[in-house]
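Closing statement on the zinc ion sub-project.
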Amino acid sequence: MTIDCLVLGAGQEVGKSCVVVTINGKRIMFDCGMHMGHSDHQRYPDFSLISESGDFDNALSCIIITHFHLDHIGALPYFTEVCGYNGPIYMTYPTKALAPLMLEDYRRVLVDRRGEKEQFSSENIADCMKKVTAVDLKQTMLVDRDLQIRAYYAGHVLGAAMFYAKVGDAAMVYTGDYNMTADRHLGAAQIDRLQLDLVITESTYATTIRDSKYVREREFLEAIHKCVDSGGKVLIPAFALGRAQELCMLLDDYWERMNLKVPIYFSAGLTIQANMYYKVLINWASQKVKNLSATRNAFDFKNVHSFERSMINAPGPCVLFATPGMLSGGFSLEVFKQWAPCEQNLIVLPGYCLAETVGHKLMRAKPPARIDVDKSTQIDVRCQIHQLSFSPHTDSKGIMDLIRFLSPKNVILVHGEKPKMASLKERIESDLRIPCYYPANNESQRIETTHYIKAEASKSFLQSSLSPNFKFLKTISRADTGFVLNERAESCVQVCDDRVAEGAVIMQKDQHPKIVHQNELMDILEAENHKVQVAYCCPVCVPDEPKNVALSPGEDMHPVLDKCSLLHLLYTKLSNGFQDVTILNDGDRLQIQSFTVSPCLKEKCPHRIHVNPDSTSEAVNFCCTWSMEDEKLAWRVISSMKNLELKTR
Amino acid sequence: MKLTCLSEGRGYYFPPCHIVNICGFRVLLDCPLDLSALAVFSPLPIVISSLLDEKASIHSGQSSSNSESVRQEVSELLDSKKLIQAEPWYKTVKSLQLWSIYSIDVVLISSPMGMLGLPFLTRLKDFRAKIYATEAASRLGKLMMEDLISMHMELRQFYGPEESGCPQWMTWEKLELLPRALKDIVLGSDRTELGGWMSIYSAADMKGCMEKVQFLKYAEEACYNGSLTIKALSSGLEIGACNWNILSPKGNIIYLSGSVFASATATSFDYKALEDSDVLLYSDFAACNDVDGEKNDFPPATGSSYSSNIGSCWETIPESWLDSDEYSEEMEKVSFICSCVLDTISDGGSVLIPIGRPGVMLQLLENISLSLESSNLKVPIYFVSSVAEELLAFSNIIPEWLSSQLQERFCSGQPLFTHIQLSNEKKLFVSPAIHSSKFLTSWQEPCIVFCPHWSLRLGPVFHLLQRWCADPNSLLIIEERADIKLALLPFEPMSMKVLQCSFISGIKLKKAIPLLKILQPKHVLVPESLRPHISCWNPKFSVQSFSENETVVVPKLKAFADMDIAMDVASELLIDTKMIEGKNIARLKGELLIEQGKYRCVVRNKQVLSSQVRPLLFVGRVDLDSLLMALKKMGMKVAAQSSGGSEHVSLIFISEPSEALIEVTSTQTTISVGDETTASLISEAVRSTSVCF
Ligand SMILES: [Zn+2]
Ligand SMILES: [Zn+2]
Ligand SMILES: [Zn+2]
């Protein structure tokens, strides 16, 4: 059995995430993103590799979308409404609610700014979302009889999820984007310990270890505070969702604490609606935010108002969140043109900006500078610029922690830069000894998977194997990880038993193999068990032993003759020599596995084979018996017995 | 598997209670309270409602003059004199107390109502079970318990601190004096249920209880002790209510509680997830009521007409048929209620709605406010309860637990419920208590009041009923109940209009059978009264019936349990097989694990595969001639001697390479040898000439 993993996007790059995985005949598309850096055919994954004929409904079992970022969902309306995919689509509740806003935002940017022919319409977005089945975290969804999927909390953005998929015995996890440390509004990624053949993980920060976010948050707040104190205006270009709410939460809270009255604005009605969604979806936020929600919903921003175009040149300080992010056009760019020339003002760039956007140019600029906004316009930038680089992706330590925790049989890296992926692959293979791959776009990777044979076990076999001699395997607790990974406490109680060997397998044509206890086996075969034993009556040297004592029962019993003490002497000697095995002493005999030994006082013992007739003078005989499987052990014990001297005084 | 039905329950408010033994684990299904039994108590004889006229602040405590007027009030209200005038106690499932608490391993909670009795168990020292409930059901259950405690504390202020030991009314002398109807409730029809009565649990008991609950999402897999995989699947009865799928290595069991196909508020009945079970415990008693109530509609089960009615379309029933009419029927009911409300308001009367089902309550609130809006009536709506605010806030942040209609509404950008907007517009007033000054200043009649408690014995409803019971223009909306006379007794004579309505709380008989057909379980356990209706279909599954306080043993499902063998183990098996009696036999190597209710044989340490299995098994007899041949082939000097007689002992003497003796009987071979090399040669010869593995 195999998993085939075809990387259609985000292979050795960031953008248009799309991986098509075939597991035991089921085909799942994980994410259906678009690439912001391209405006030609490279913008979308090459769907023709899934089905040349375009019959996607039969080619795919389902699509799973991990979160609402455009590099993960941007191509979905195109794929469903233009390419005609009609099959099931799964995403979490927040993603289903928020994705249309994101898509609509993007569509407008395309049409308004680039003046491009639209790739999909508003109706397309709405129709596409109607086909989506929303899932809750940890809910096990049956896509069909054989394919089950499950979402786990991924942090990153509201509603982001890692997805587990299982077909038959083969199972895998696709992480999407995730964050292993909690931030102010979202919790850290959480997943159960699962048995996995494959983990496909993002690797944006494949080689970076990040420090605390709190320092940078404070710098951000201080910069804004300083600006508004001196009467300046702050522009924060952001996309409708995610970063805008996170920063706004920070500001709203800071405003309360510092008792600031300067207005905070949101640019369009669009973001206000996004806030409404955030309020309802508060259960998907961090535990801290959730706990506070009983008294006040943290997304119920007190100091936030909506912004009118006429207010751009109104006097007085303010903070404005405006869409779109990256100053790639639209309203945020319009405000930028007005505010940038003034030294008092501040532009905050929260996160990554694509090449060729104004935001990208601004990141490199040292004001005062002149910046080309478009072919015909140049802007004199005199305002201050603050870059906020915290990003809700896990760092390399987080990736390693997650992979170590899940211990899959294979790892595939996507969503990262090629050289960094190469070095992460090295670490995963050397530190964790897990094979790791990072295919490029349109390449595929094949992986062998677990497969179990279905069998039936009899009650008495299970009983003998499960009671009472089983050990609980302790799961290693690892305090070094800074994030929460569920041990799935009870489910990973694994019971292990070496008495499995008492089982026998009966295989017959056209039947499941049956596993029975060996005692049942003879009945089933209608045969008798034949007992085979090996025996040897072994002489052991006892120097102080008076001769022929054993033959003179009339005399006082010499203490040595006491069976018990002889046995005890032997026990002590053997215990020293055989520390790797357990020796049982029941007073009559010693037992090591099937090997038993007891003093033999018989005059004539059938097992007394005299190998070396000379050494019998000072000997006491010990009768040994064993089963064939303990042959090696038996002769080890016997040879040491032969070399023993049992001193009685 | 064994089932003991502890209580068949009574509808939504008092769900059934069972104990099931699965794979040696004892599972308690629900732990409800019979709150309808509160009807035996006289309600709090204090008159707060008059204060509403004065809109003044409330008296605190009782002055002597006040309590005198109280006495008078009580005597005026009687016939209800016969009701027990004491601090109420609560009726639990009596039979549950016969079980050792320590022996319960798992508790599964199917609905908020199913956990109301749980603090009585969890506060016991011996309680050690793991409790599973959905997040939403436990949150609602917690709110209900909090409200119950707070309403009770209001009563306690009147009755004073609880007397220690058995209260007066529970003594046999007093019980003997009770009218028969009350006696039936207190003691049960078999007069054994007195032991089920408990005095209220404390807030700390409740909190301790909640801390022991493991919260689940719908369809989340929880694993108990490595052997049971437990899943909650939405039942549609209430927000967070669920059926259970319990997977054990010996098969899977479905617990089907009261289920609603198309619910207006809660996530609908997820019946598809219940398909293909080994045992289905049918514990939805709604159809049993149909059996009693709809006898005329349904000819006796044995009648052929019945069979042909539905039987003919048996195979062709579209699944959509199951949830077809239900939703529209419920919506019709709601709009009828709305029209009654509007009529009452127009006549200048007030409306009192003490309905305790959160889902129904939210839906009525939504629809009534809408119809007020559309008919341009401006009357205030009040929601009075100690947990009102929290309940409303909670309802607005749980899209995952709500019906598809509400989810669609949310995804199209509207809030889940409009009550936030209603409060902002001052159309809805939410208050923790009737005597808060904020509430009193906003008070205005006519009005619409939602408040607890449906028993009509606790909470704000009592005060308002006293106020309006004589007003023929006002309207009381309550759920249909058999003991309606008793419930209203303290308020007689009632001039107030009473609208009794019944909301769907289970699967109707006509749908029960098609449902079972779709689910295709192998074995079904049904309530006694349903059995004839199910059996007459000659279903493909076997049917067994259960009744209260009887233990039913379910026949063993399969003699063999499912087990997975890892590929590496399996391929090793194929190498080492012996053909005996036409069967391939091999010894099992590996480690046995139980993972999520599944047995698995795997190899984690490759050494296990190369190690020799033990003990070696020899089958049948050792063939003497071939053994001799083999020994000779190895270059040994052998001599054989057979002694006849019954024992058939054969001896083989070996003199070279060293001395040895082999004794062979029909059941045993003993090799006496003193030299390792010779011994291993002989072993090899014996192994090669006999059937051994
Ligand atoms: Zn992302
Ligand atoms: Zn991404
Ligand atoms: Zn001997």
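Chain A has three domains: 2-209+392-446, 213-387, 531-642. With this model delivered, the sub-project is considered complete and its resources will be redirected to Aim 3.
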